[in-house]
Amino acid sequence: MAFVSTNKAPGVYIDEVQVPGPITPAPTAIAAFVGPAQIGPLLKPTLLTNAQQFTQQFGSYITDPQTVYVTHAVNGFFAEGGGQCYFVRVGTGVQAGLALNDRATSNPMPTLQVTALKEGVAGNSVTVQVDDASIASTTATRNQISLVSASGSTAKIANADASKFNPGDIVTLEKGAINDRPTITSITQSTSADLVLTAALTHSYTTGDVQKGAGPKIPIVSASGTTITVAAGDAVNFAAGDTVTITGGGNTEGPTIASIAIHATVTFGAPLAHTYDNTADMRTADLMPGQQRIHVNSVTGIEPGSYVSFTQGGTTEAGVVRTVDTINSSITLTNGLANLYSQASGAANPSIAVQTLEFTLTIVGPTSGTEIFKNLSMDPRHSRYFAEIVSSATVDVELADPPSPSLPAKNLPKVIAATPLQNGKADNIAALTTADFHKGIDTFLRIDEVNLLCIPDSVGGTFQAADTQDIQAYMLAHCEKVVNRFAILDPRSETWTAALDLTQILAQRAGISSDRGMGSLYYPWIAISNPLGSGRVLVPPSGHIAGVYANNDNTRGVFKAPANEAIVSALDLSRVLTDDENGVLNEPGIDVIRAFPGQGIRIWGARTVAPSDITQWRYNSIRRFVNFVEASLRDGSRFAVFEPNNPSLWGTVKRLVTDFLTAQWQQGALEGTTPDQGFSVRVDATLNTPEIIALGQLIIQVTLFTVPPAEFVVFQIIQEPGGSSVSE
Q1: For 610-683, where are the alpha helices, taking DSSP H only?
Q2: I need a labelling partner for 497 at 20 to 30 A (CA). Which of 564, 700, 705, 715 fits?
């Protein structure tokens, strides 16, 4: 921004220039798990940073009525080096709930949703009651005084009346049929008092003193005509009817005081249209439609965000307080008043009642007893905003989704007697369907930072092959839709037989595919130590593999294939494969987990489930690295949105993208011995023609020369007969 020198003194000025910072690498190893659990909220993504948090919030291992594998998967993720993951609990249980409707006159809509913390029929015994409440009740300030005089932009009033008005007040000056409605900008109380005499003085005085009998001699400010002016504090020495002696400049007189006046000066924001004398009045002006600032007798209990009602006779309305002026005892509304409220005195115009509008929630649970949350507000600015105050041991209270369309204060929950929550139902893990898992997956559409998706229970329980295919296809479609997300797919469980039969896993692979390679399928299951007793248990491998991914990303980089890496927690495999058997599975893109003597259980494949003819996305390291670049560029270039689309912006974006990709090349993620052999960034007038710019688009073309993994290491051994010969 150019320096503006207008109205500035010569000198040295500092003008900080903010420039876009380097592109921050996006995360790559935050996992997401979906599955059943003993306890915890349903369909709510919860961030976890260790396995203990899972146990605390969702319970322990489940073996009845069927084994649940996601608990093993989450523990395996952290055991293998994972740092953060989200978990979404799915289930058939339903938390009892109750929608609290707003106060719309017609077609009321939900404004709050009350939901039992736990699913089950017990929630149907919880009751909720809504009552009206009010923190503060006051009236609009109403004052009426007699003027001394008024003209131009000022008025004279008695000093004693000055405290009845404040700067910012709108007042009415009236005398008979004439009136003005100015706004007070300031009130200045007088520092002098006028002793008004019964007859005019013979002389004028600029110095001297005035004395009542043998009392103290009081210095005068001035004296002439029928007025002697003294300091305001000295006026207490005199009273109407007193005969005084004034002396000064060699003259002495003995006038009588008719009255004593101490005047304050009221200054208005604009000149008055009329002139007023001491037969006129000044009063608080009527509250007019559109008026936002209202002077009230007390602002105690009123704050920004307070809903307030204004009532006079049969006229009433509500508004929202934007600001509170505690010094001048006034409130300013977000929107102006809709009605007129008279401030004229008389029985026909009662005081204007001003009252805050809050509500009280009473929640009664079968075991938690009665919880009362008083004086709640629906405005986030308010100190009693319901979301910050309601902390129930029985229910959650949230804004309705979608929110109520009613404006304040119609969006307050309607008063209701104690009403039970409804439709609570117990969880039945055995009754879970693929649709329940779809809903769980969908909750991650709003969580941008998730990178890995695992659903080990898609291959467990009562699910048949078609059910597994349904869930895993939904996982892949989800990852296709969201930037920087990759599915780790589990093999179905299989009945052990002495003879290896790969028909089932090959059929599973044939039923799923992703043209963009957004997932990898692993085989077989792994054996881990039984967390509930002695021996070992077989579990789907996705959670442990996600932990290996995370550890690989953190130690090597996302560009390095997460293969030839040990699964430390794995003790054995459900199937031990030979090289030939491994080859049969590797070709269609099934990543095998192998046992190597002395080297432990290792991931021995890095392919995706992309079709075999789409070699661009054959390897998961390539797919995930490109995901990572896309997410980093998306987040790191957001500053450019709505900036002027000109070569200056093009150069800035190109520099940032080039710097980011150079750092990736230096780490070994891209080909070549120089950066330009590893990537190119193009943003020019050929791509961004006037027609493209007119559409509001900026096109940046980024080409990446990625580094595939060495899947097959081939030594060519050449044996030749004979040897070197020596001759003389």
Answers
A1: 620-636, 647-666, 675-678
A2: 564
CATH fold group of domain 191-261: Elongation Factor Tu (Ef-tu); domain 3 (2.40.30)
Contact between 243 and 258 (Cβ < 8 Å): no
Residues paired with residue 440 on neighbouring β-strands, in sequence order: none
C-beta of residue 698 within 8 angstroms of C-beta of residue 685: no
Q: How far apart are the first and last CA of the chain?
A: 86
The amino acid present at 397, given as its one-letter code, is V
Alpha helices in 185-306 (DSSP H): none
In this chain, the answer to whether the domains covering 31-92+429-622 and 191-261 adopt an identical fold is no
Burial 293-307 (b: 16+ CB within 10 A, else e): bbbbeebeebbbbbb
CA 305 – CA 388 distance, rounded (Å): 14
> Residue 91 in contact with residue 68, Cβ under 8 Å?
no
Residue 11 has pLDDT above 90, yes or no: no
Distance in angstroms (rounded) separating the CA atoms of residues 660 and 706: 15
pTM as predicted: 0.71
CA angle centred on 478, ends 475 and 482, rounded to 5°: 140
Joined together, the tokens standing for residue 24 give 């921050």
Please count the CA atoms within 13 angstroms of the CA of 578 that sit on its side-chain side: 4
List, in sequence order, every beta strand (DSSP E) within 36-81: 46-48
Picking from 644, 619, 613, the residue whose alpha carbon sits closest to that of residue 707 is: 619
- Give the CATH architecture of domain 31-92+429-622: 3-Layer(aba) Sandwich (3.40)
Alpha-carbon dihedral sign for residues 581, 586, 592, 597: positive
Angle between helices 51-58 and 70-79 (to 10 degrees): 160
Over residues 67-103, the pLDDT tens digits come to: 999 999 999 999 999 999 999 999 999 999 999 999 9
Beta strands 315-325 and 192-197, pairing class: unpaired
Asked if residue 706 lies in contact with residue 596, where contact means CB atoms within 8 angstroms, the answer is: no
**In whole angstroms, how far apart are CA 382 and each of 195, 232, 371, 680, 699?**
52, 45, 21, 53, 45
Paired sense of beta strands 486-489 and 452-454, if any: parallel
DSSP 8-state symbol, 26: P
Domains in the chain: boundaries: 31-92+429-622, 97-134+358-420, 191-261, 643-728
Is 90 exceeded by the pLDDT of residue 393?
A: yes
Biggest CA pair distance of the chain? 155
Residue 403's pLDDT band (cuts 50, 70, 90)? very high
Q: What are 232-237's contacts with CB under 8 Å, separation 24+?
A: 232/159, 232/190, 232/191, 232/192, 232/193, 232/262, 234/193, 235/193, 235/195, 235/260, 235/262, 237/212
Buried b / exposed e over 534-556, threshold 16 CB at 10 Å, is eeebbbbbbbbbbbbbbbbbeee
Residue linked to tokens 């006229």? 315
Sign of the C-alpha dihedral computed for residues 399, 401, 405 and 410 taken in this order: negative
Look up tokens 């009252």; give the residue.
355
Q: Within a 13 Å sphere around the CA of 307, how many CA atoms are in the beta-carbon half?
A: 22
Q: What are the structure tokens assigned to 232, written together?
A: 């305001």
Using DSSP's 3-state secondary structure scheme, residue 125 falls into: helix
The tens digit of pLDDT for each residue in 39-59 reads: 998 999 999 999 999 999 999
Q: Which fold has domain 97-134+358-420?
A: Immunoglobulin-like (2.60.40)
Specify the DSSP element, H or E, that contains 582. Answer: helix 579-586
